[in-house]
Amino acid sequence: MASSFLPGEPERPVVKTEIPGPASKEYITKLTQVFDTRSLNMLADYTKSVGNYIVDPDGNALLDVYAQIASIPVGYNNPVLRKAAESPEMVTALINRPALGNFPSHDWADVLETGILKVAPKGLNQVFTGMAGSDANETAYKAAFMWRRQRDRGGPAVEFTEEEMESSMLNKSPGASELSILSFKTAFHGRLFGTLSTTRSKPIHKLDIPAFDWPHATFPQLKYPLEEHAEENAKAEADSLAEVEHLIKNYHVPPAAVIVEPIQSEGGDNHASPAFFRGLRALTKKHGVLLIVDEVQTGVGATGKFWAHEHWDLPEPPDMVTFSKKAQTAGFYYGDPTLRPNKPYRQFNTWMGDPARALLFRAIIEEIQRHDLVANTARVGDYLFGKLEGLAKKYPGQFDNLRGKGQGTFIAFDNPKRDEFLKKAKKFGVNIGGSGASAVRLRPMLIFEKHHADILVEALEKVVSS
Amino acid sequence: MASSFLPGEPERPVVKTEIPGPASKEYITKLTQVFDTRSLNMLADYTKSVGNYIVDPDGNALLDVYAQIASIPVGYNNPVLRKAAESPEMVTALINRPALGNFPSHDWADVLETGILKVAPKGLNQVFTGMAGSDANETAYKAAFMWRRQRDRGGPAVEFTEEEMESSMLNKSPGASELSILSFKTAFHGRLFGTLSTTRSKPIHKLDIPAFDWPHATFPQLKYPLEEHAEENAKAEADSLAEVEHLIKNYHVPPAAVIVEPIQSEGGDNHASPAFFRGLRALTKKHGVLLIVDEVQTGVGATGKFWAHEHWDLPEPPDMVTFSKKAQTAGFYYGDPTLRPNKPYRQFNTWMGDPARALLFRAIIEEIQRHDLVANTARVGDYLFGKLEGLAKKYPGQFDNLRGKGQGTFIAFDNPKRDEFLKKAKKFGVNIGGSGASAVRLRPMLIFEKHHADILVEALEKVVSS
């Protein structure tokens, strides 16, 4: 059975050669001369890839549940996206790229309102647009620092002092603030200098790069199955919140904001309960610290809600929500007007995003709504999770700490020989990614259906039983 | 006379209304509700803009010598770019965006070699691709830090110590290195956390944002006309180089690299002589410090060379050259293979650039070469400079410190009432930008011709004489 949403998918994976095969190897040899290919996973021919299937130059077609590090939303060569890409609007946007802060196009408000803002998280009706996830988080951090200093200064009307202006030019306090962003252990928020200071994934991401003296708290390490460890897990979450509060009150570089992922993704798919996040919202509110929710990987439907933080039933929204990846553009949503700094040109850069990519997100949203793909993902995720529970019982030790129940297809498990597991999966026709130390993370697209889940489960079984 | 390079340009500017006119005002009111418009300069209708002319929704058509903060290379709605934007290759690239480090497309080497690398600066045959100027500079900084630590550690084969790995996760030395990037006063290199620490343009760009304790040296402040101040200027440059050397040897956070713009652009169009830059290359080489040339604003033809540092006649190339803006994509060029870090995933992110924008740069390069637009810019720049010298003589005090001779159309002057000057220019049909405290900076596109220069000069004369 092929896809219900997209024409032209193969019925099943096709594995014709070793991966990389001879044609791929030739291309890789050429590419290595000018581009670092040591992190290359597989080469792709995107003209031939379709729907849930990534196709390589040797004619191998793999069911892709990695999806460009969770960034392809509605399938390769989706015809609705193709139509948007071929539209006169897109062509104009591509060849006349504006400096959005200075010279926005007359229809920019319309593009925002029918696209990026149409899916704005509840309570957040403003957006600052950017280029990619790191950029979205860094501009959110900047907004947090300016907001906090403005509050402490006595409001937007209070002018900067001479001392502040002079010391800022020397990278010194008080002009350069001595404030921090609090993040969590095993978090990933990006790899530029500000975001990397909040990223705590792996040494290889951080080694040799100067970092800010910013605090981090322990993220609750839940035990699975959840129902057998309710008490311990509640304690882990309470301890984490207590640590956050302690750091907010005592860290020598005070946090202006706490940033958290709804599910720590690069860090190994670490979950916490809605109660934990409600606690975090209450705590940050109590201490006048902003809460930034990093939905770069969790956003745009994969957890069975458009935004993963909708699972939490928060009494008040986060202060900022950052997005990228499946949105194919980036930025941060906010609601409080005081998060716009008190003067122009404080939060500014040349491009401030990309209208072409904003048009693409608009088409993605249309496609998601047309097929109700968020509901599809919730439904297929439940189905897949059930099947994986079966596998976990059948193959003890191979699908450890199965997690992501009720979180759409945002599912992971641990395997003791994870890297080998991922390699083997290719032989059985499936492209899967890993994260953290031992997690196999599933990141299907939103057009992933039950029959794709069946193919995946069959392949996973072959991987552990072969 | 209309453009020789592009069909459809108006003969002259058209100013029908105040700017913003009634139609623009309506759009702006709507946009302000969801997007910060306080830095808005003018609204544009890009469907109607053409060549050197930016058109607004009220039908005003201004000769655009600001060009989206120097980022439009070959004119609005350039037909060659349109063709590239409509090509099947572009559509595929737009709708199937890869994680380039993991899953590059089979033709990525070809896209690089026929595009970005076709214009690689002499001696630099490798590229790391990125999204925008800030990103290009930050990844270049990361390369510098990893390179330096690797050298000090004893080479790529030396493994990280346990202490380095553990301390890196705590943002502490030795894992997080205590090294710096040395930049210059009045430099601008971007506004993310690492680049902002090297940016020394204005307090409004830096206030409230935490910064690294990195050093900066005085950029030579040349006096004009150059021929009347040869001795003083040579001394200013010698002093600057001595300060750089002193900081390299003594700053308590040692520099891994020096970053410099060929012409400090946002900082007010501050120039230095080729001898200064040759001195800087010699000095950095002598002390084992990398030299990064930031060509984000100067690159891609505007100075009458493809890269501005070609004016310097360097005996050895810079270690890295960063680019963006007119390239419509971004990244850094390098040559030394040891600038690829010793392990994969150290210099990595999800998208690592954008093949769609790489295709656009390829088309830009084709268009530049087809019409020999770099030579055109050199020629028209000389013509324009001569005319401006005439104006400067005729209107003393209005075109102070006229600079950029022999640097294509990359020309600037100071005006005591700069902001008013720029506003008035719109009334006379010209869109111009400022920089630094009092500079009027000219940033025409590469398709700017003599008759455009005549229109510009005529308008400038009206501005100062009205």
TrEMBL record, chains A, B:
EC class of the enzyme, as a word: transferase
Any one GO molecular-function label of the UniProt entry: pyridoxal phosphate binding
Record carries keyword Transferase: yes
GO cellular component term, pick one: mitochondrion
InterPro entries named in the record: 4NH2But_aminotransferase_euk (IPR004631), Aminotrans_3 (IPR005814), PyrdxlP-dep_Trfase (IPR015424), PyrdxlP-dep_Trfase_major (IPR015421), PyrdxlP-dep_Trfase_small (IPR015422)
Keyword Magnesium found: no
EC number(s) from the headed UniProt entry: 2.6.1.19
One matching Pfam family: Aminotran_3
One record GO biological process: gamma-aminobutyric acid catabolic process
Reactions that this protein is recorded to catalyse: 4-aminobutanoate + 2-oxoglutarate = succinate semialdehyde + L-glutamate
Similarity remark: Belongs to the class-III pyridoxal-phosphate-dependent aminotransferase family.
The protein's name: 4-aminobutyrate aminotransferase
Lineage: Eukaryota, Fungi, Dikarya, Ascomycota, Pezizomycotina
